[in-house]
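ok so for the tutorial part 2 we go from a plain amino acid sequence to predicted structure tokens. step 1 is just haveing the sequence, like this:
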Amino acid sequence: MLRQGGHPAGLQEWFDRLAGRIAEARAQLGQVAPSKVALYSGCDLDADAAFRLTFFWRDYLIRPPDFVVRRADTGEEVTSFIQALILTYMTTADGTTPSSRWIAFRELPDGMFYAQAFRGYAEDWLVRELGDGGISAFRRGAEKLGGAPLELGDAGYAFAVLPRIHMAALYWLGDDEFPSRASILFEDTACRYMPTDGLAILGSHLVGALVRAAQG
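step 2 — the prediction. this is what the tokens look like for a chain of 216 residues:
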């Protein structure tokens, strides 16, 4: 799963900013009715007032009043990296209905400024890591992760990475004139649930998961 460190400089800088929000997010959640947090974020609310959500195929619990994020299966407290992303999601969520309209990273708020970097460490990296396996490896990895097929690109799949954040991965097969390429897309409502820096981290992690699934 997600771990702090090991990211390109731009992503590490974004993580550093997110990590600083943990205490602030916990304080903010303590001021909002649990039912409202659950309604806006799409989290489940257990009988004992603990929030439950799925984040990249693993279940987590967030229990008031300390709002520490723990794995649902073991009760283990997770890294500050995952804490930051999940708590940022819960405090940013405003209940907007997911749109099913896909946009590129550059179309997110301030995304144009970071689009070239995102392409390098996410989309171009995906093509490089899949190597000769190309589109077959891409399909294999996406299907292992339970991606829902899309009629976009030469192959495309959608993934729910948080209750109301969906992303898509597309692959175009190259030819003699143009190399293969990949794109990571976001619903245009994703920014109502996570700031652009957090979405960049989620996109990078989806690419890493696809590569590991394809190669594993």
